[in-house]
Amino acid sequence: MTIPGFTSTGSKRPEAMFGSETGGPQKMTRSEGCRLWDAEGNEFTDMIMSLGAVALGYAYPEVLAAVYEAVRAGTVGSLPPVLEQQVAEDLTQVIPNVESVRFFKSGAEAVAAAVRIARVYTGRDRVVTCGYHGWLDWCQNEAGVPRCVRDLRTEVPFNDLDALSRAVEQETPPAAIVLEPIIDGPPDRGWLQSGRDLADSCGAVLVFDEIKTAFRVALGGATELYGVTPDLVVVGKALGNGFPIAAVCGPLGVMDAATRTWISSTLATEHAGLAAARAVLNVFRREDVLGHLRSTGGRLMQGLERLAADHPDVIVGVFGVPQMCYPRCVSPESAARFAVEAAKRGVLFKPAGYNFVSLAHSDEVVDHVLEVLSTAADQTEALC
Ligand SMILES: Cc1ncc(COP(=O)(O)O)c(C=O)c1O
Fold first, then answer.
1. Which residue of 91, 200, 336, 345 has the smallest Cβ count within 10 Å?
2. Closest-lying ligand 1 atom to the alpha carbon of residue 53
3. Which of residues 263, 286, 309 is at a domain's end?
4. pLDDT (tens digit, 9 = 90+) per residue, 249-275?
5. Which residue out of 48, 106, 132, 356 has the highest number of ligand 1 atoms within 8 Å of its CB and is therefore the one to mutate?
6. What H or E segment, with its residue span, contains residue 118?
Protein backbone atom coordinates (compact mmCIF):
# COMPACT_ATOMS: atom_id res chain seq x y z
CA MET A 1 0.00 0.00 0.00
CA THR A 2 1.59 3.29 -1.03
CA ILE A 3 -0.94 5.67 0.55
CA PRO A 4 -0.41 5.83 4.33
CA GLY A 5 -3.68 4.89 6.01
CA PHE A 6 -5.40 4.47 2.59
CA THR A 7 -7.25 6.56 1.48
CA SER A 8 -6.77 10.37 1.71
CA THR A 9 -10.56 10.81 2.18
CA GLY A 10 -11.07 9.11 5.56
CA SER A 11 -14.83 8.65 5.26
CA LYS A 12 -14.33 6.74 1.99
CA ARG A 13 -12.02 4.17 3.60
CA PRO A 14 -13.48 0.70 3.04
CA GLU A 15 -13.32 0.10 6.81
CA ALA A 16 -15.35 3.29 7.41
CA MET A 17 -18.20 1.57 5.57
CA PHE A 18 -17.58 -2.16 5.92
CA GLY A 19 -15.68 -2.34 9.26
CA SER A 20 -13.65 -5.53 9.36
CA GLU A 21 -16.16 -7.38 7.14
CA THR A 22 -14.89 -8.49 3.76
CA GLY A 23 -16.81 -8.60 0.50
CA GLY A 24 -17.45 -4.89 -0.10
CA PRO A 25 -15.96 -3.02 -3.08
CA GLN A 26 -12.62 -1.29 -2.39
CA LYS A 27 -11.84 1.14 -5.19
CA MET A 28 -13.76 2.79 -8.02
CA THR A 29 -12.93 3.83 -11.55
CA ARG A 30 -15.94 5.75 -12.87
CA SER A 31 -19.28 7.32 -11.95
CA GLU A 32 -22.30 8.59 -13.85
CA GLY A 33 -25.81 9.63 -12.72
CA CYS A 34 -26.46 7.66 -9.54
CA ARG A 35 -24.13 4.76 -10.49
CA LEU A 36 -20.50 3.96 -9.98
CA TRP A 37 -18.24 1.16 -11.15
CA ASP A 38 -15.59 -0.50 -9.00
CA ALA A 39 -12.12 -1.59 -10.10
CA GLU A 40 -13.48 -5.02 -11.10
CA GLY A 41 -16.11 -3.42 -13.36
CA ASN A 42 -19.08 -4.13 -11.04
CA GLU A 43 -21.88 -1.56 -11.20
CA PHE A 44 -23.42 -0.05 -8.04
CA THR A 45 -26.32 2.27 -7.31
CA ASP A 46 -24.70 4.89 -5.10
CA MET A 47 -26.73 6.31 -2.21
CA ILE A 48 -23.75 8.11 -0.64
CA MET A 49 -23.06 10.39 -3.61
CA SER A 50 -19.50 11.14 -2.64
CA LEU A 51 -20.47 12.15 0.91
CA GLY A 52 -23.11 14.57 -0.36
CA ALA A 53 -20.79 16.37 -2.77
CA VAL A 54 -23.13 15.71 -5.71
CA ALA A 55 -26.82 16.69 -5.88
CA LEU A 56 -27.43 16.67 -9.65
CA GLY A 57 -25.88 13.25 -10.30
CA TYR A 58 -22.34 12.32 -11.31
CA ALA A 59 -20.96 13.66 -14.60
CA TYR A 60 -23.97 15.93 -15.09
CA PRO A 61 -23.57 16.97 -18.77
CA GLU A 62 -24.23 20.69 -18.33
CA VAL A 63 -21.73 20.95 -15.48
CA LEU A 64 -19.14 18.95 -17.43
CA ALA A 65 -19.61 21.20 -20.48
CA ALA A 66 -19.03 24.32 -18.35
CA VAL A 67 -15.93 22.77 -16.81
CA TYR A 68 -14.53 21.66 -20.19
CA GLU A 69 -14.95 25.23 -21.43
CA ALA A 70 -13.21 26.59 -18.31
CA VAL A 71 -10.34 24.14 -18.75
CA ARG A 72 -9.97 25.08 -22.40
CA ALA A 73 -9.87 28.73 -21.28
CA GLY A 74 -6.72 27.99 -19.33
CA THR A 75 -7.97 27.03 -15.83
CA VAL A 76 -5.77 29.62 -14.10
CA GLY A 77 -3.87 32.84 -14.77
CA SER A 78 -2.19 35.61 -12.80
CA LEU A 79 -5.22 37.87 -12.49
CA PRO A 80 -8.48 37.31 -10.62
CA PRO A 81 -11.00 35.67 -12.97
CA VAL A 82 -14.21 37.36 -14.12
CA LEU A 83 -15.94 34.09 -13.18
CA GLU A 84 -15.10 34.63 -9.50
CA GLN A 85 -17.07 37.86 -9.46
CA GLN A 86 -19.95 36.25 -11.36
CA VAL A 87 -20.29 33.30 -8.99
CA ALA A 88 -20.02 35.64 -5.98
CA GLU A 89 -22.89 37.69 -7.44
CA ASP A 90 -24.89 34.50 -8.04
CA LEU A 91 -24.46 33.54 -4.38
CA THR A 92 -25.63 36.94 -3.16
CA GLN A 93 -28.89 36.22 -5.01
CA VAL A 94 -29.56 32.87 -3.38
CA ILE A 95 -28.27 33.09 0.20
CA PRO A 96 -30.02 35.52 2.55
CA ASN A 97 -28.10 38.56 3.84
CA VAL A 98 -25.01 38.04 1.65
CA GLU A 99 -23.06 40.92 0.12
CA SER A 100 -19.56 39.48 0.00
CA VAL A 101 -18.02 36.06 -0.71
CA ARG A 102 -14.60 34.37 -0.36
CA PHE A 103 -13.90 31.14 -2.24
CA PHE A 104 -11.93 28.06 -1.18
CA LYS A 105 -11.31 24.54 -2.41
CA SER A 106 -12.63 22.59 0.60
CA GLY A 107 -15.30 22.92 3.25
CA ALA A 108 -12.77 22.67 6.07
CA GLU A 109 -10.85 25.65 4.68
CA ALA A 110 -14.01 27.71 4.29
CA VAL A 111 -15.23 27.12 7.86
CA ALA A 112 -11.74 27.84 9.21
CA ALA A 113 -11.82 31.12 7.27
CA ALA A 114 -15.22 32.01 8.77
CA VAL A 115 -13.76 31.49 12.24
CA ARG A 116 -10.70 33.60 11.39
CA ILE A 117 -12.98 36.37 10.12
CA ALA A 118 -15.03 36.17 13.34
CA ARG A 119 -11.86 36.35 15.45
CA VAL A 120 -10.65 39.44 13.62
CA TYR A 121 -14.11 41.04 13.72
CA THR A 122 -14.55 40.53 17.49
CA GLY A 123 -10.93 40.61 18.66
CA ARG A 124 -11.70 37.39 20.62
CA ASP A 125 -10.37 33.84 20.47
CA ARG A 126 -12.87 31.39 21.96
CA VAL A 127 -15.39 29.51 19.77
CA VAL A 128 -18.53 27.50 20.52
CA THR A 129 -19.29 24.76 18.01
CA CYS A 130 -21.91 22.15 17.22
CA GLY A 131 -21.31 19.52 14.55
CA TYR A 132 -18.51 18.51 12.20
CA HIS A 133 -16.55 21.31 10.55
CA GLY A 134 -13.67 19.54 8.82
CA TRP A 135 -10.26 18.23 9.78
CA LEU A 136 -8.33 21.45 10.58
CA ASP A 137 -6.83 22.19 14.00
CA TRP A 138 -9.27 24.85 15.22
CA CYS A 139 -12.14 22.33 15.53
CA GLN A 140 -10.43 19.01 16.28
CA ASN A 141 -9.33 17.20 19.45
CA GLU A 142 -7.30 14.65 17.49
CA ALA A 143 -3.69 13.70 18.07
CA GLY A 144 -1.38 16.47 16.95
CA VAL A 145 -3.72 19.33 17.83
CA PRO A 146 -2.03 21.49 20.52
CA ARG A 147 -3.79 21.67 23.87
CA CYS A 148 -3.89 25.49 23.71
CA VAL A 149 -5.87 25.27 20.44
CA ARG A 150 -8.29 22.69 21.83
CA ASP A 151 -8.87 24.86 24.91
CA LEU A 152 -10.26 27.65 22.74
CA ARG A 153 -13.27 25.57 21.68
CA THR A 154 -16.40 24.48 23.55
CA GLU A 155 -18.43 21.86 21.70
CA VAL A 156 -22.15 21.52 22.42
CA PRO A 157 -24.74 18.85 21.53
CA PHE A 158 -27.26 19.43 18.75
CA ASN A 159 -30.61 21.03 19.63
CA ASP A 160 -29.65 21.52 23.31
CA LEU A 161 -30.60 25.07 24.18
CA ASP A 162 -29.33 24.95 27.79
CA ALA A 163 -25.94 23.58 26.77
CA LEU A 164 -25.62 26.29 24.10
CA SER A 165 -26.48 29.07 26.59
CA ARG A 166 -24.04 27.69 29.17
CA ALA A 167 -21.24 27.43 26.59
CA VAL A 168 -21.79 30.96 25.29
CA GLU A 169 -22.34 32.66 28.64
CA GLN A 170 -18.97 31.76 30.12
CA GLU A 171 -16.69 34.40 31.57
CA THR A 172 -14.80 34.83 28.28
CA PRO A 173 -17.30 35.62 25.51
CA PRO A 174 -16.80 33.75 22.22
CA ALA A 175 -15.73 35.18 18.88
CA ALA A 176 -18.04 32.81 17.04
CA ILE A 177 -20.90 30.39 17.53
CA VAL A 178 -20.54 27.86 14.70
CA LEU A 179 -23.57 25.61 14.20
CA GLU A 180 -24.25 22.80 11.80
CA PRO A 181 -27.99 23.49 11.48
CA ILE A 182 -29.17 19.94 10.71
CA ILE A 183 -27.71 16.91 12.48
CA ASP A 184 -29.58 13.63 12.91
CA GLY A 185 -32.86 15.49 12.36
CA PRO A 186 -34.33 18.94 11.84
CA PRO A 187 -33.35 21.64 14.35
CA ASP A 188 -35.83 23.15 16.79
CA ARG A 189 -36.29 26.58 15.32
CA GLY A 190 -36.00 27.92 18.88
CA TRP A 191 -32.51 26.42 19.15
CA LEU A 192 -31.36 28.15 15.96
CA GLN A 193 -32.99 31.38 17.10
CA SER A 194 -31.30 31.12 20.50
CA GLY A 195 -27.97 30.87 18.62
CA ARG A 196 -28.92 34.18 16.96
CA ASP A 197 -30.05 35.81 20.23
CA LEU A 198 -27.02 34.63 22.21
CA ALA A 199 -24.64 35.86 19.51
CA ASP A 200 -26.38 39.25 19.51
CA SER A 201 -26.34 39.60 23.27
CA CYS A 202 -22.63 38.79 23.65
CA GLY A 203 -21.38 40.32 20.39
CA ALA A 204 -20.27 37.02 18.81
CA VAL A 205 -20.48 36.18 15.11
CA LEU A 206 -23.09 33.49 14.33
CA VAL A 207 -21.88 31.08 11.64
CA PHE A 208 -24.07 28.43 10.02
CA ASP A 209 -21.98 25.65 8.53
CA GLU A 210 -24.18 24.76 5.55
CA ILE A 211 -21.60 22.65 3.74
CA LYS A 212 -24.07 19.73 3.52
CA THR A 213 -27.36 21.64 3.68
CA ALA A 214 -27.06 24.53 1.19
CA PHE A 215 -28.34 23.56 -2.30
CA ARG A 216 -29.93 20.52 -0.69
CA VAL A 217 -32.64 21.34 1.90
CA ALA A 218 -33.17 24.74 0.23
CA LEU A 219 -31.07 26.82 -2.13
CA GLY A 220 -30.03 29.00 0.80
CA GLY A 221 -29.83 25.96 3.11
CA ALA A 222 -31.25 25.90 6.63
CA THR A 223 -30.76 29.67 6.76
CA GLU A 224 -33.53 30.03 4.19
CA LEU A 225 -35.61 27.06 5.35
CA TYR A 226 -35.89 28.03 9.02
CA GLY A 227 -35.74 31.80 8.58
CA VAL A 228 -32.97 32.40 11.12
CA THR A 229 -30.21 34.53 9.59
CA PRO A 230 -26.64 34.01 10.76
CA ASP A 231 -23.82 36.52 10.18
CA LEU A 232 -21.80 34.12 8.04
CA VAL A 233 -22.93 31.16 5.95
CA VAL A 234 -20.42 28.56 4.79
CA VAL A 235 -21.28 26.52 1.68
CA GLY A 236 -19.55 23.81 -0.36
CA LYS A 237 -20.23 20.21 -1.47
CA ALA A 238 -23.35 20.36 -3.76
CA LEU A 239 -22.32 23.82 -5.02
CA GLY A 240 -19.61 22.22 -7.17
CA ASN A 241 -21.42 18.93 -7.94
CA GLY A 242 -18.13 17.09 -7.42
CA PHE A 243 -15.75 19.88 -8.44
CA PRO A 244 -13.78 21.56 -5.66
CA ILE A 245 -15.34 24.77 -4.43
CA ALA A 246 -16.51 26.15 -1.08
CA ALA A 247 -17.25 29.66 0.12
CA VAL A 248 -17.79 31.92 3.13
CA CYS A 249 -20.61 34.37 2.54
CA GLY A 250 -21.87 37.29 4.60
CA PRO A 251 -22.64 40.98 4.88
CA LEU A 252 -19.88 43.48 4.03
CA GLY A 253 -19.62 44.73 7.62
CA VAL A 254 -18.45 41.32 8.88
CA MET A 255 -16.71 40.02 5.74
CA ASP A 256 -14.53 43.12 5.62
CA ALA A 257 -12.56 41.62 8.53
CA ALA A 258 -11.11 39.19 5.94
CA THR A 259 -9.10 42.11 4.55
CA ARG A 260 -7.47 42.76 7.95
CA THR A 261 -5.85 39.31 8.14
CA TRP A 262 -4.24 36.94 5.60
CA ILE A 263 -6.67 34.52 3.99
CA SER A 264 -5.47 33.41 0.55
CA SER A 265 -4.73 30.28 -1.43
CA THR A 266 -3.06 29.95 -4.86
CA LEU A 267 -5.80 27.86 -6.48
CA ALA A 268 -8.82 29.27 -4.63
CA THR A 269 -9.93 30.98 -7.85
CA GLU A 270 -9.13 28.33 -10.48
CA HIS A 271 -11.76 28.14 -13.19
CA ALA A 272 -13.06 24.57 -12.95
CA GLY A 273 -14.73 24.81 -9.52
CA LEU A 274 -16.13 28.27 -10.28
CA ALA A 275 -17.48 27.19 -13.68
CA ALA A 276 -19.05 24.10 -12.12
CA ALA A 277 -20.74 26.24 -9.45
CA ARG A 278 -22.14 28.63 -12.05
CA ALA A 279 -23.58 25.73 -14.05
CA VAL A 280 -24.97 24.08 -10.90
CA LEU A 281 -26.76 27.28 -9.87
CA ASN A 282 -28.24 27.57 -13.38
CA VAL A 283 -29.67 24.05 -13.12
CA PHE A 284 -31.14 24.80 -9.69
CA ARG A 285 -32.75 27.96 -11.11
CA ARG A 286 -34.26 26.11 -14.06
CA GLU A 287 -35.30 22.78 -12.58
CA ASP A 288 -37.05 21.80 -9.38
CA VAL A 289 -34.00 20.00 -8.00
CA LEU A 290 -34.99 20.82 -4.42
CA GLY A 291 -38.52 19.43 -4.88
CA HIS A 292 -37.03 16.26 -6.38
CA LEU A 293 -34.55 15.80 -3.52
CA ARG A 294 -37.35 16.33 -1.00
CA SER A 295 -39.80 13.88 -2.56
CA THR A 296 -37.30 11.17 -3.52
CA GLY A 297 -35.54 11.53 -0.18
CA GLY A 298 -38.93 11.33 1.54
CA ARG A 299 -39.67 8.07 -0.29
CA LEU A 300 -36.29 6.71 0.85
CA MET A 301 -36.75 7.81 4.44
CA GLN A 302 -40.27 6.36 4.69
CA GLY A 303 -38.99 3.10 3.24
CA LEU A 304 -36.17 3.05 5.80
CA GLU A 305 -38.68 3.61 8.59
CA ARG A 306 -40.69 0.59 7.37
CA LEU A 307 -37.46 -1.38 7.19
CA ALA A 308 -36.60 -0.39 10.77
CA ALA A 309 -40.06 -1.48 11.96
CA ASP A 310 -39.65 -4.85 10.18
CA HIS A 311 -36.07 -5.42 11.38
CA PRO A 312 -35.78 -4.18 14.98
CA ASP A 313 -32.91 -6.64 15.52
CA VAL A 314 -30.86 -4.80 12.89
CA ILE A 315 -32.04 -1.16 12.84
CA VAL A 316 -32.79 0.93 15.92
CA GLY A 317 -34.05 4.03 14.18
CA VAL A 318 -33.88 6.34 11.17
CA PHE A 319 -32.19 9.73 11.48
CA GLY A 320 -31.72 12.90 9.46
CA VAL A 321 -34.07 14.63 7.05
CA PRO A 322 -35.36 13.27 3.72
CA GLN A 323 -32.53 14.90 1.74
CA MET A 324 -29.83 13.32 3.97
CA CYS A 325 -30.75 10.37 6.17
CA TYR A 326 -29.53 7.08 7.59
CA PRO A 327 -30.72 4.07 9.57
CA ARG A 328 -28.77 3.46 12.78
CA CYS A 329 -27.94 -0.21 13.32
CA VAL A 330 -27.92 -2.03 16.65
CA SER A 331 -24.12 -2.40 16.60
CA PRO A 332 -21.11 -1.47 14.46
CA GLU A 333 -20.86 -5.14 13.46
CA SER A 334 -24.42 -5.29 12.13
CA ALA A 335 -23.93 -1.92 10.36
CA ALA A 336 -20.84 -3.29 8.60
CA ARG A 337 -22.63 -6.55 7.69
CA PHE A 338 -25.67 -4.62 6.43
CA ALA A 339 -23.44 -2.44 4.20
CA VAL A 340 -21.63 -5.48 2.79
CA GLU A 341 -24.89 -7.36 2.12
CA ALA A 342 -26.26 -4.27 0.28
CA ALA A 343 -23.02 -3.86 -1.72
CA LYS A 344 -23.04 -7.55 -2.69
CA ARG A 345 -26.44 -6.81 -4.27
CA GLY A 346 -25.22 -3.71 -6.10
CA VAL A 347 -26.15 -0.91 -3.68
CA LEU A 348 -23.66 1.38 -1.92
CA PHE A 349 -25.42 2.49 1.24
CA LYS A 350 -24.27 3.88 4.59
CA PRO A 351 -25.96 2.48 7.68
CA ALA A 352 -23.98 4.74 10.02
CA GLY A 353 -23.68 7.99 8.07
CA TYR A 354 -25.77 10.08 5.73
CA ASN A 355 -27.15 8.82 2.45
CA PHE A 356 -27.97 11.52 -0.11
CA VAL A 357 -30.40 11.29 -3.01
CA SER A 358 -29.68 13.27 -6.17
CA LEU A 359 -31.55 14.45 -9.24
CA ALA A 360 -30.43 11.17 -10.84
CA HIS A 361 -32.28 9.05 -8.24
CA SER A 362 -35.77 8.31 -9.59
CA ASP A 363 -38.59 6.77 -7.54
CA GLU A 364 -37.86 3.47 -9.34
CA VAL A 365 -34.21 3.61 -8.26
CA VAL A 366 -35.23 4.29 -4.65
CA ASP A 367 -37.77 1.44 -4.69
CA HIS A 368 -35.12 -0.93 -6.05
CA VAL A 369 -32.66 0.22 -3.36
CA LEU A 370 -35.29 -0.38 -0.65
CA GLU A 371 -35.89 -3.92 -1.97
CA VAL A 372 -32.15 -4.62 -1.86
CA LEU A 373 -31.89 -3.14 1.64
CA SER A 374 -34.75 -5.35 2.81
CA THR A 375 -32.87 -8.47 1.62
CA ALA A 376 -29.65 -7.10 3.13
CA ALA A 377 -31.43 -6.59 6.47
CA ASP A 378 -32.82 -10.18 6.34
CA GLN A 379 -29.28 -11.48 5.73
CA THR A 380 -27.84 -9.31 8.51
CA GLU A 381 -30.49 -10.60 10.91
CA ALA A 382 -29.60 -14.18 10.01
CA LEU A 383 -25.84 -13.67 10.27
CA CYS A 384 -25.35 -11.27 13.25
C1 LIG B 1 -20.95 20.36 7.92
C2 LIG B 1 -19.59 20.16 7.34
N3 LIG B 1 -18.66 21.11 7.48
C4 LIG B 1 -17.41 20.99 6.97
C5 LIG B 1 -17.05 19.85 6.30
C6 LIG B 1 -15.67 19.72 5.73
O7 LIG B 1 -15.73 19.80 4.34
P8 LIG B 1 -14.53 19.17 3.46
O9 LIG B 1 -14.53 17.70 3.70
O10 LIG B 1 -14.88 19.57 2.05
O11 LIG B 1 -13.26 19.82 3.92
C12 LIG B 1 -17.99 18.81 6.13
C13 LIG B 1 -17.62 17.57 5.43
O14 LIG B 1 -18.29 16.57 5.47
C15 LIG B 1 -19.28 18.97 6.67
O16 LIG B 1 -20.21 18.02 6.52
1. 200
2. 10
3. 286
4. 999 999 999 999 999 999 999 999 999
5. 132
6. helix 107-122
